[in-house]
């Protein structure tokens, strides 16, 4: 009786369960192909999200400058520093707020000479010399795959636009 039980136990030990080496290699190869296909789409999506985020920061910072000018009854200066990728709001020499932009973000101003805006207590947006503003800020990501987003600034507001509306 013991002998037959030992044979059964020995048979159970000899049968193996799990995956063969070939099955594991095929699975890894399929996963590598899927990751290879998905990776470029993910990086393009990340770049596009960065463009959208930077566009929102530009618009929000101008809207905040308008609010701060109304509250303080002073002119607020909105400045973009390309070297440090920084937007600052200044009231009488005091920095009210700073917005750090991603180093992957690229802002192009048209006209190129206007990277500073003055927002009066009445909410009018002008150049520092008092000239009327009709500014286009093109925002893009330095990584491949992202489209350009345009923010328009006029004497009253900043808004996002695309296509023939810009």
TrEMBL record:
It comes from the Bacteria. The keyword Transmembrane helix applies. SUPFAM superfamilies: Pili subunits. The chain crosses the membrane at residues 21-39. This is Type IV fimbrial biogenesis protein FimT. It comes from Psychrobacter luti. Keywords: Membrane, Transmembrane, Transmembrane helix. Pfam families: N_methyl. The keyword Coiled coil does not apply.
């Amino acid at each position: 009786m013991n002998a037959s039980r030992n044979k059964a136990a020995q048979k159970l030990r000899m049968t193996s369960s799990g995956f063969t080496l070939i099955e594991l290699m095929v699975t890894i190869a399929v996963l590598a192909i899927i990751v290879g296909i998905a990776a470029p789409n993910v990086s393009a999506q990340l770049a596009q999200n960065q463009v959208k985020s930077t566009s929102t920061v530009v618009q929000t910072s101008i809207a905040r400058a308008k609010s701060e000018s109304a509250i303080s009854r002073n002119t607020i200066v909105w400045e973009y520093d390309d070297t440090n990728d920084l937007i600052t709001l200044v009231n009488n020499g005091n920095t009210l707020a700073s917005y750090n932009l991603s180093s992957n973000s690229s802002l192009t101003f048209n006209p190129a000479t206007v990277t500073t805006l003055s927002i009066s207590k009445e909410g009018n947006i002008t150049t520092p010399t008092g000239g009327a503003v009709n500014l286009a800020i093109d925002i893009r990501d330095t990584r491949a795959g992202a489209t350009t987003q345009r923010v328009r600034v006029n004497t009253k507001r900043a808004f996002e636009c695309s296509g023939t509306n810009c």
